[in-house]
Q: What sequence folds into this?
């Protein structure tokens, strides 16, 4: 029993000790419970696995409206980690679903070919009502067709 306590206090995980002794992790946990201060499940206390400098860069990218997928790829973290870091930094959460990038030029082109809004919606990933709204805004001069390079067409 003392060997288990000493190994755990030295930093050995419950799962690694269970594998070493050929028993379940629950059995090791039961033996240790009440004899040592148990660490939280899944990690060590008082440590951050992501260095503060990297956390600051992630928060800065999120606050700067970088695309979530780009942040995840650049820093090698999942979306929940990005949101947790943003929460800890006091940055308001973005709406779920992000910003949809629609190719307005493609919508106008398909409309000029007399495609119905429902078909344009299926092709572009927008809703039929969003397609109608975009076309109405363009016809009324309330919006401009963005350059293909500027709006990330094809993403």
A:
């Amino acid at each position: 029993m003392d060997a288990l306590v000493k190994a755990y206090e030295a930093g050995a995980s419950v799962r690694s000790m269970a594998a070493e002794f050929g028993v379940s992790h629950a059995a090791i946990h039961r033996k240790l419970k009440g004899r040592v201060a148990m660490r939280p499940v899944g990690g060590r206390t008082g440590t951050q696995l992501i260095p503060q400098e990297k956390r600051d860069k992630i928060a800065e990218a999120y606050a700067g409206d970088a695309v979530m997928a780009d942040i995840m790829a650049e820093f090698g973290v999942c979306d929940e980690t990005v949101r947790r870091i943003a929460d800890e930094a006091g940055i308001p959460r973005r709406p779920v679903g992000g910003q949809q990038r629609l190719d307005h030029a493609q919508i106008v082109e398909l409309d000029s070919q007399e495609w119905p809004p429902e078909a344009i919606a299926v092709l572009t990933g927008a809703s039929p009502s969003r397609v109608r709204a975009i076309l109405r805004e363009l016809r009324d001069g309330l919006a401009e067709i963005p350059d293909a390079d500027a709006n990330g067409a094809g993403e």
